[in-house]
Amino acid sequence: MIQHNIDLKPFNTFGISAVAASFTEICSTEDLEHLSLKTTDNYLVLGGGSNILFTQNPGGLVLKINLKGIEVVKETDQYVYVKAAAGEIWHQFVLHAIQNNWGGIENLSLIPGSVGASPMQNIGAYGVEIKDVFEELEAYHIDTKEIHTFNAEECRFGYRESVFKRHLKGRYIILSVTYRLTKNPIINTSYGAILSELEAMGVSQPTIKDVSDAVIRIRSSKLPDPKEIGNAGSFFKNPVIAVELFNSLKEKYPNIPSYPVSATEVKIPAGWLIEQDGWKGKTIDQYGVHKNQALVLVNYGNAKGHDIFNLSTQIIGSIKDHFGIELEREVNIV
Fold first, then answer.
1. How far apart are the first and last CA of the chain?
2. Is domain 3-65 annotated with CATH 3.40.50.300?
3. Which residues form the catalytic set?
4. CATH number of 70-182
5. Tens digit of pLDDT for each residue in 150-176?
6. What pLDDT digit, counting tens, does each position of 257-271 carry?
7. CA distances from 247 to 39, 241, 269, 321 (A)
8. For residue 272, which of 67, 132, 175, 193 sits 20 to 30 Å off, Cα-Cα?
9. What per-residue string of b and e applies to 152-166 under the rule 16 or more CB within 10 Å gives b?
10. Would the pLDDT of 192 be above 70?
11. Would you state the CATH architecture of domain 230-333?
């Protein structure tokens, strides 16, 4: 059923008010077939609404993906292959895996959003990315109405990237994702503050649930709950820069954190750059930069999307001027 003039404020974690001229929920592939969409149509696919900033009212049809279901499709001695529908809440899926002692995604606990967005963004945290556990996905081709299967190579995963954000953008709607999870979990505590958090919890031999609990504690201490303060998590990607530029910056900023990407490139935490530039905790009217995590832009009340977008533009310009690094937005702008 198509509804009209629907306020999308409840459907995006920034809590931005934007009116959809037409709106419908997709609960099955049949719902998509009945719409008879074409790639030339004006439409917007909305998942969990955790990676989007509305700066204007979407002009066409908004499709809220509400596909549900989790099932084991294959098992071996070492792995279990779990298929989850695109509308499943990501964190709830992680908890489901932990309850069954399926390892591989516990480090991705508490990431907001839906299962369908996980391969599109190649979401990652604390040393793990979706590409590490990805088996395949099913996607609906809008023009042909066919369901196509994509393996990892075909998805062309990169840092917060996939083929669905670039070459195939607007051509497919992701229906389900199958993950390759391990029956004998390998505990990954090497990244970030997980190990020190486990020590604070008094855990010396962690299970995947312990790792998940540690990640949840860390994220909760740094990141605002979208139910309390509107936000979309990390607003910017961590920039990857040339080693030559990094060495130049290190002379001026000896404590600059970094993560090697290759022999010629280094990744720099965007949050560190923003904090060093004095933006952390800055508030302007009803919006600003979060006090505990400079990577997060927030809506404290009734901010407009263009206010937050303009703030991000100011930050990008400031970082470019002071560090010679151009930040890239991770959040999708509408």
1. 24
2. no
3. 160, 234, 330
4. 3.30.465.10
5. 999 999 988 888 988 888 888 899 999
6. 888 888 899 999 999
7. 46, 10, 15, 18
8. 132
9. beebbbeebebbbee
10. no
11. Alpha-Beta Complex (3.90)
